[in-house]
Amino acid sequence: MQLFAHGFGGVKDLPIPLWLAITAAVGALVVSFVVLALTTRPDSAARPVRDRSVPLPRRIVDSTGWVVAWRVVGVLIAAYTAYVAIWSPDLATNPLFGIFYVLMWVGVVFASLLFGEVWKAISPVRAVAEVLYTARGTREPLLRYPERLGMWPATLGLLAFTWLELVHPDNDFQSPVRTWLTVYVAVMIVGGQIWGDTFYENCDPFEVYSSLMARLSPWARVDGRLVLRRPLANLDATPTKPGQVAVLAILFGTIAYDAFHESVPWFRFTQASGWSNAHPGWVIWVNDAGLIGFPLVIGLFYMVGTMCTGVGDVRRRDLPAALAPSLIPIVAGYVVAHYLSYFWLSSQLTLQMASDPNHTGADWFGTSDMSINTWLLRDATFLAVLKVLAVVIGHILGVISAHKRALRVLPREHVVTGQLPLLVTMIGLTGGGLYLLFST
C-alpha cells in the first residue's frame, strides 16, 4: 500500500529541462572519471585504510546489555505489528501498512546509511533464533550453508516484497500483508535453525538490503573493534558474493519500475488500450512482466558493460561480481531520490496512527495529536533538485568505487582504456534512471 505516492514532483518541477539535467549529470560522471584517471596512482588501491577507534562507545555497543536491548526493541515492534495485523480494523489507517511498507522497507535503509547494520541489530527473527539456540544448547547449524548459493535466496524475498507492494491488487488489505509476514517469519526461523546465522546474512531480504546500504555508513568493525572510517573505504571492503549482482539489480530495477509504472506512458500502454477492456487480467500480467523485466534489463546491461571492461588475462565473467559493490551508492542515490518525500510524510502519519490502532480515541504513545511537518514538501522545485543531486552523487561515488576496484583487477597498462565500457554503462544507468525518475 502506498500511503502517498513515492515520488513527489516530476519533470515539470525541475528548474531546467530534463534533457539538460541528464546532460549535466552525464558531464559530472565524465569529469569525475577523467579526474580519477589523471590523478589516481595505480598502487593507491593497495594503501591501508586509516580507521579511527572509538573506545568509549565500544564499551557500550559490545556489551551484552546493548545487544539485548536492541533485540528487545525489535521484538516489541514485531509484537505490536502482529497485534495490529490481527486485531486492528482492516482500514487504510491501520498502522500495519505504514510499519510494513514505510518503516521496514524504507526507514531501515535510511537508518542503515547512517548507523550501519540496523536490521541485523533489531531483527525479531534473529531474537527468536537466539532463544532457540539457547534451548538447543548450541549455535552450531544443522547443515553448512552452501557458499555457491550466496545471496540468491534473498532475491526471491526482495521480489516477493516488491510484488506485494507494487503489483498485488489487494496490497492495501491486512490479509496479504499478514500472509507475507507469516511466511517470512516461518522461513527465517526454520532456515536459521538449519543453516545458522549465515542464513540470515544471505537470505533475509531485509537484512541483505540493510547490510548492503550499511556499507556506505561511517561505522565498521575491524578485528572486532568498532571504528570510524570514510564511507567509501567501508564500501571498498565489501565482500563479493554469488547473487550480489542480482540483488542490486532488483533493488535498482524495482525502484525504476515503481517510478515509471505511475507515468502517463505506462498508463496508456496498460490501461488505455483495448486489451485492458477485453482481458481484465492484462494490467496485472503487464505489471508482473514490468516488475521482473526492469531488474532483468538493468542487470543484463550492467553485466554486458562490465564484461566488456575486461582486457588482457582478466576473466570477463568474473568482472560483474568483482565490480558489483560499486552499484551500492547508485542504488542508495535512487532510494533517497525516490523515497525521501514518501518516507518523510508517511513515517509521521504512521507514528500518528500507531497511538490509536483501534480507533477508540486512545493515545498509547502520545502521538495521536502530533502535527505533521511538511517543510520538505513545500517547495517542489527544491525537492526535484534534491532528487537529481542524490542520483548524481550516488553515480559519482559509484564511479569512484568502480575505479578503485578496477585498479585491483585490471592490468596496469589497461587501467584507463579498460574502464571505458564501464563508464558507458554508468552513463546509461544515469540517463535512464533520471528519465524514469522524472517520467511522471
From TrEMBL:
TM ranges: 16-39, 60-86, 98-116, 289-311, 323-345, 380-400, 420-438
Provenance organism: Nocardioides baekrokdamisoli
Keyword entries, A-Z: Membrane, Transmembrane, Transmembrane helix
Name of this chain's protein: Fenitrothion hydrolase
Upper taxonomic lineage: Bacteria, Bacillati, Actinomycetota, Actinomycetes, Propionibacteriales
